[in-house]
Amino acid sequence: MLQRTRNGRANTVLVAGGAGFVGSHLCDALLARGDRVICVDSYITGSEDNIRPLMNHPKFRLIEKDICHLKSLDEPVNQIYNLACAASPPQYQADPVHTLMTCVAGTGNLLSLAEHYRASFLQASTSEVYGDPMEHPQSEDYRGNVNCTGPRACYDEGKRAAEALCFDMLRAGRADARVARIFNTYGPRMQPSDGRIISNLLVQTLSGAPLTIYGSGNQTRSFCFVSDLVAGLMALMDVDPNPGVPVNLGNPGEFTINQLVDMVMTIVPSASTVVHKPLPQDDPQRRRPDISRAKELLGWQPTVSLAEGLRLTADWFTASMRPDGRFDNA
Ligand code: NAD
Ligand code: UDP
């Protein structure tokens, strides 16, 4: 079905970060409903593999560029999704200044394009804006507990600044900006080497390496399967009128890291042992979204259970293994 904009034209959608894990699934979903997609990506953490099947699609185009330097486009767009930013802690901390500039200068550039083309804009924000939360579960009204000088600040404070930019542009009537606060998301196409918990555990169990638990493993997270997240992002972009407030998108099921390890070991039985490593500085102890707002405004809620999503993800990692039992980039 060809999706129409609110004034009846077909969508041309810019997806910044479209070669990444979430972004590539978003490109797939937009193309599947008939939109034209312009993917902008610098490949800093994304991969050409994620979008290779799209390269010959008549409605897909890649612009290889860093959003910190993206000042203009050569064709109009009517929707802009900003997913461009490393999301895994080791990756966003590898070049923290660039991460912060991506969030601030890069988001600023994309908002200027949204203003210029009168395009709707969706910012991929994060549950990290709540930091190590003092309220549980986290609703959008909670203002967070973030260390602005720690190693996670480039990401947490960068995303908070990006939200401020979005709401300033919205209040000034300069851009139709929307903000999704995304909680931990997983699924096929996570990079084996990206360092996040679910990709680490699956790579480790499939290759027979020890499973790494940071700290006691009693810290919690809520894990959303990528297809559910993409549906939520598209619902927030398309809802009319603009809610004008941030919206949490995540799966409210809450699991300790120890419980997650047990589930992974059940789904992918292996001889792997468990090793404990130090808890990274400022690692949040608890995280679980209150998704009442998304349910009410978007009619959205996740449909894929953690067990089902882990099975689908494990199948994908199994299929990506090399014959020698190792992974590229792991
Ligand atoms: P990812 O690292 O797989 O994807 C990010 C993509 O952005 C990559 O393709 C990367 O090359 C590109 N990129 C990064 N900086 C760029 C720049 N300056 N210019 C151009 N391209 C750039 O991460 P992901 O998990 O797909 O996350 C996508 C978005 O969702 C990010 O903005 C992230 O902050 C947000 N988010 C993700 C999660 C999650 O659990 N996956 C949770 C909260 C928020
Ligand atoms: N973690 C872990 N082992 C790993 C990777 C991560 O125990 O191999 C922990 C990490 O310390 C955190 C949780 O799992 O408490 C989720 O980490 P991830 O990097 O996936 O996401 P984030 O910390 O950004 O929520």
TrEMBL record:
NAD-dependent epimerase/dehydratase domain: residues covered: 13-239
Keyword Secreted: no
Requisite cofactors: NAD(+)
Alphabetized UniProt keyword annotations: Decarboxylase, Lyase, NAD
CDD domains: UGD_SDR_e
Pfam families from the UniProt entry: Epimerase
Record's keyword annotation contains Glycoprotein: no
PANTHER family: UDP-GLUCURONIC ACID DECARBOXYLASE 1, UDP-GLUCURONIC ACID DECARBOXYLASE-RELATED
Record protein name field: SDR family oxidoreductase
